[in-house]
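Follow-up to my post from last week.
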Amino acid sequence: MSRVIGIDLGTTNSCVAVVDGGKPVVIPNTGGYKTSPSMFAISQDGKRLVGHLAKRQAVTNARNTVFASKRLIGRRFDSPELARAVDLFPYQIAEGPDGDARIVAADKTFSCSEIAGIILREMKRVAEEYLGEPISDAVITVPAYFNDTQRQSTKDAGKIAGLEVLRIINEPTAAALTYGLGHREEQKIAVYDLGGGTFDISVLDLADGVVEVMSTAGNTFLGGEDFDRRIVEHILEEFNKAEGIDLRDDLMALQRLKDAAEKAKCDLSSLNVTEINLPFIANDATGARHLNLELTRETLEDLVSDIVNQTMKSVEQCVSDAGMKAEDIDHVVLVGGQTRTPLVQQAVTRFFGKPPHRGVNPDEVVAVGAAIQGNLLTSGDRDLLLLDVTPLSLGIATFDGHFASLISRNTTVPVRKAHQFTTTRDDQSAVKIRVLQGESENADDNHLLGEFVLSDIPKAPKGEPEIEVAFDIDANGIVNVSASDVASGREQSITVKTTGTLSEDEIEQIIAENANVPFPGDS
Amino acid sequence: MLSRIDGKTSWDVLRQIGGLPPEEVDRSLERWAKEGLIVVEEAVPAEPRAETRDRDAADTRLDPALDLPLDLQRRILDFEAALDRPYHQILEVDLSADAKEIKRAYFRLSKVFHPDRYFRRDLGLYEARLDRVFKKVAEAYELLSDPTTRAEIERSMGTGPEQGAHRGIAAGDRERIAPESPAGYRVPSRIENLERLRRRFKIPKKLVAERQFKARQFYRSALVAAKGRRWLEAAGGMRLAIAFDPWNAEYKSGFAEIQADVHRARADELVEMASDETAQAEALKLLEEALHYRPCDAAANARAADLCLELNEVGRAREYAESACELAPDDVGSHVLLARSLRRGGQAEAAVDALGRALALDRNHPEALAEQRQQRKKKRPR
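User reply:
Got it. Predicted complex:
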């Protein structure tokens, strides 16, 4: 049987790992890097580029270079997050036929699942090259706080990449699995995961070879990219003050600034001051202008302290959801490159009253955990068992616009809960059920997963028909709904048509299209 | 609501269709259950497709062809057969178990029953069984790991921690409704709701026979009262008969008959009361009430029309006159009343038609002739 790879499909970087000879290994790509940028581009001569190749040409080809598409996946085009992204991203974002967000590069429109699929396919290729065998199965990680639509879209991406996705697991959970493999004693851990575009916090209970997720919280639109953006804004302002030139509309300059900001941020994790040097950044009547700016750690911390504070609010909520206090946590594990920032480490240390655990590589730990889970599922290895939870409450909209939660957040999956519905009018023949995910009491503030109409209800006075609607969340955190008429025992097969995901046909079509497009990496 | 108690309808449904506020339904059901008027049926399976499951569950053969050791198959079957056990027994822990022991038990059982352990294996019917077993184990842990719900569970078993730990509580004990606190109605906790909303009720057989006997007695005395035109007593008796035996259609139709009789009698009474001595407005009110009980009384409609005209309520007069004409098309007086209402309502042409119908029936009817004069007077130019 072929091996299962674990893929951490990150906002900025992706990483692939496998369990080889009982030991998890992070797989380096052809260039020797253990992570690859989650970027995709179509070059001027029409070539498709991915990973480092795409990143390298981003400066000269900003409009056709797609990055951070994970921030868009599974989101509706009219959502507030999208409005922000449209302002920020140099590439074009369009509305898909189903109200989903799509990406335009070199005049071709891609669904977000397709872009993610291209990146996953690259990771698959890296693994196949390293292992010298074909790979078909994968475990892919997503932020714990991803909703059902975002998970479905990620699963679709796997399909597009030619992978069977055995399981979608939460990133902090994957990190905890990696940690749990080396730490068998009973303990409570918190995983603080600040990645490129998302933030997650989970509290887990480790004992007797079982990793139980107790609670999870987070923000799917907050991460290292926001740090970079703050720095970029700062540089733009400073440059405008000094030179009177606004670089905002200069795509190439912006891309250079973005790279420089990211580099400066990394520098300031170990240094107290760094220099941002961008010669020939602009031209005007008097000639070329150069950008030369000193950035201190203190300035950086001023720029981003509110973002860090925001994450700490989720941390508080998560710990209290687990029914614990900060001091009950035995170890704190940091995940995601952004946790290298000293300010983040300080905030975490202050909250938990103990310094974070330093044994894991924050960039690789998630992919390793995914590989471990893949191995646990398929190899019959009885070392560890993962008990994961659903991060968001699942429920329905009531007729007065409220949200009735049927499966509350942090319930262990798989879970099935049945609920009885009835009619509100005499001889009512159909009931419309809107399935939502979220924590607001107001139905409209939650994420609409889909809606269905239960029809052909036998005629009866109001309140008499008993319609049992069962809500299932499977081990992937993906939602299924079925309904049956209790009296007749007849089951109506209902699929909640998740809005904004691809249909089977579309996926097939994309796979067929891509089969003919050569990748530079493919031999 | 009693009529809904048939051993099939669950508490949850009763709350929704009882016609009473849900709290009221809870209160009544709890009181009746306590008084022994109703008994709780065995718990209802929480999942749908009961038939398929029963069929599958009945097939309890061990299958060596499956990718699952036979001893584990046996264990799953045994566990599933006893899913109705108290939660402590599901987790295989003592009532006195502490939080840590409960967690360990949950982890231990998860390692055996979690579906991930058998990923992609051919499990046949055991796949669904395993799923049910794990979900039950998870439910037990969810409820027992929360001190509030755990206390509720222990209280509902009648063996709170203060009474010391006992083992082996019969499954039936759990079905008993938690005793009501002296302070009256207690808001049910989450666990109680989970458990009890699935309950179904039935009325014990012996009680049913007793009640049917009593119902028959009430019915008989009601019939006697009806004969003596003691309407209130008769209606009360019928109501009691229905309350004691809601399934007997005879009582329901008996009640309907008595109601009709009461209405008839009441209407007669009202019409009589609305005699000439009564003030016109008062008489009209009485007549209207009588018409409520007996809407097809042509004479009463005609009288009402007449009174309306006297009181200058032309619109309503026309309505009553129209009903009277419809109910008794051969009554000349009604047609004349209609003609008068129409004329005074300004509908001269329709008034002429109505009068024409009256005169066609009787061309010497004095009131019709009087109306004819009125109409001509109006037509004559000044």
